[in-house]
Amino acid sequence: MGTPLEALPTVSVPAIEQLLPTINLPPAKTITILNTKAEYHVIALLTWNDQEDLILRIAGPHVPRTKTENEVAVITWLQRNTKIPVPAVVHHDSSTDNPLGCEYVLQKRLKGQSLDLVWPSLTEDEKLKIYDFMVEVLRELTSHEWKHIASLRLTAEGEIVPGPVLDERFWEARDIEKYFPPGETVESLNPLGPYSSYVEFSIARLEKSMHAIRKHESLAFMRPHLPLLEDFIEALREDSKKLNRTNLCLAHRDLHMGNIMYDVEGHTVTGILDWEFSVVMPVQQGELSRAFMHDLVDDGGWGERKGKMLEVLRERSQEEGGGDVVERFGYVSEDQEEMQEVVDLVRAIVEVSPRGQREGERMGWRDEVLEILEGWMD
């Protein structure tokens, strides 16, 4: 399996120099293509003498148009509707018809360093202040009403409307061509939506996984269980009123410390980066189910540290009188949690089997799915 990094474009300083006059910017004093790359972007720092530094994020061809358009729309929505600090967009292009030959987003540079770099050196009081900030972020993200599970996009008139669902784990065109027989597409293998409810989205995810099971020989071991999955989908439809008890929220979905900028001198968070895969989701699948506040220390102890962090968030949110913010992200019933577990496990099986990965775990995941399904059908 290739990684997103392998598909990143080669970008030159002269190409960036050619871009600037086309978007009414003067020649930059310095242009530095950074060695550190995001998985889906090449990053360049542009400086001038008399204006703010800018960050140019040049996208690879992983998810044409949608990812760039979503990030710009999400940042625009956040600026219009919340107090969450984000890097303002100066210019963007979701086409490749420009001197770079790539999609890009040009943003103002946020002051400070990523939080993972400074977290170990912060005092307890400084850390508590950051927890308070994150409590407010979670409250902001869960306090707005949404009607669709979707990404966002901007119309030509500046209106923010639903777009297709995005996920870093979706099958990209380059991997579909490598791992699937001819005829399969991004649309045939991924749930794109938008979707109007939790159950509708869950069923769509299952149906796309079931399609892959029918098409790929590495998934033949799941085919005998397709009728049981079909019965499960029917049960979800019948119980949809109960299972749909959720709120929808905009979720960053990769809110680790590397995406949180912190100013050591000012003792404050200056902004949150990388909203490219953010989507409106059921709260149960929002921030706390992913990389929220991950410190990027790969020592096997993150689970314990995350548990402690969530407890601090609970305490800080309750002390402020706004209720337990962590509780907002919980499942409302065992059935709802099991619905999500089946969806996630089947997706995991479909994700790794065509790539020849996790052979020792696939059967265990299948058995977990069957145990839940058999309990539902009793």
Automatic annotation (TrEMBL):
TM ranges: none
Pfam families, per the entry: APH
InterPro entries, A to Z: AGP_Transferase, Aminoglycoside_PTrfase, Kinase-like_dom_sf
Residue span(s) of domain Aminoglycoside phosphotransferase: 44-283
Domain of life: Eukaryota
PANTHER family named among the record's database cross-references: AMINOGLYCOSIDE PHOSPHOTRANSFERASE DOMAIN-CONTAINING PROTEIN, AMINOGLYCOSIDE PHOSPHOTRANSFERASE-RELATED-RELATED
Protein name: Aminoglycoside phosphotransferase domain-containing protein
